[in-house]
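Lesson 9: reading folded outputs for more than one chain in a single document. The general rule is that every protein is listed as its sequence immediately followed by its C-alpha cells, and records are never interleaved. Here is the first one.
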Amino acid sequence: MDPTPRDRAPGDETMPEAKREETLAGLQAYLIGLLFAAILTATSFWTATTSVLWSPGVATGLVVLAIAQMGVHLVFFLHITTGPDNTNNVLALAFGILIVGLVVIGSIWIMAHLNANMMPSGNLPNLQMQR
C-alpha cells in the first residue's frame, strides 16, 4: 500500500520537492505582502503626525495610502488576481464594492437632506417651564 499525501503525519519531512517549493513560494508571497503592509502602515502614521506635508494634503495622502493598503491586502492575502480562474472572486468583490458604495452614498445623501430640512436652532420655541 503506497502512502498518499493525505496519509502523512503533520510535520513529516518526506514532503515532495515540488510541494516544498510551492509552500516556500506561498510563504514568500505572504512575507512580501506583510512587508508592504507594514511599510504602508508606518507611512500612514508618519503622514498623520508630520509637519513636513502641507496640512490640507495630509487627508489626500492618507486616502492614497489606504487605497494602496487595500490593494496589497487584495493581491497578497486574498489572492484576487485577473486570472481566468478568479472571475467569480473579482465579480464578488465588485458587487461588494457596489453595495458598500450605495450604502455610504445613500447615508450621506439622507443625512444631507435631513440637515437641510431641520428647523434652524434660532427659531425653536421657548420650552422652559414658567414658575
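And here is the second record, again sequence then C-alpha cells.
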Amino acid sequence: MAALLAILTFAFFITLEWVVGKVMAHRRAIAPAAAASPAALALPMQPVPEPVFVAGYALPSDYHYHRGHAWVRVLGPDTAAVGIDDFARRLVGRSTRVALPKVGSWLRQGAKALRIGDERRMADMLAPVEGTVVAVNPDVTRRPSLCTDDPYGHGWLFKLQSPNLAANLRNLLSGRLARKWIEDAREQLELRLMALSGSVLQDGGAPASDFAEHLDDDDWKRITETFLLTEGAET
C-alpha cells in the first residue's frame, strides 16, 4: 500500500510539473506580442508624395482632408496619421507651442482634439477621424514649430487606431473635391483679409505668407475659428 501511494504521489508531481511548464511556455510565447501592442506603433510614416499645389497651397493628392484643415494619411486597415494642412499652417502662423492629445485617449471625429499657436495665442483644431491615440510625434513635442515648418512630413502630430476608419474617410475630402474646397477656402480668406487690411495681402490679392502676424488677436481668433470650424465645437 505504501509503495502504491509513493508511485501515485510521484506521478502527481510529474504531471503537475508538465502542466506548469506548458503554462509558462504559453505565457512566454504571448508576452512579446503583448509588449508590441498596439501594432500601429511599428508602422512608419510613408515618404511624403511629390507636392501638388492648388490655389497656391500644398495639397498632396494621397491625403484625406477634414474641412477643419487637418489631414489624414492611411497607414493600415485601421490606423492613420494626422497633421495640419498648408492652409492651417499659414492661417495659424509659425507654431511655438502645441498641445497634443494623450496616448490612450479617444477622439471623436469633428470634436476638438489639439491646440497649436505661440506664447500669445492658441488655436483649437478638430479631430478628422475618430479613434484611440496610439502615438504622438515626439519631435513635435520637443520642437513645436516642426508641425508648421513641415506639416505633411516630419511635422505629423499623432497616430490613431480607428475601428471605423473606412466610414470616417467617407466624411473627408480628396481628389477633385479637395481641390475645389481649397480653392473656395482661399477665395473666402482673401475676401475676409481685404475687409480687414490690405497690408496682409501680396500683390495680386494672395495672402502674405506671414499674414497671421499682422492680425490683432480678435481678428485672428475670429478667422481661425471660422476656417478651422472650432467656434462652438465640442471638446
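What the second record shows: The radius of gyration is 26 Å.
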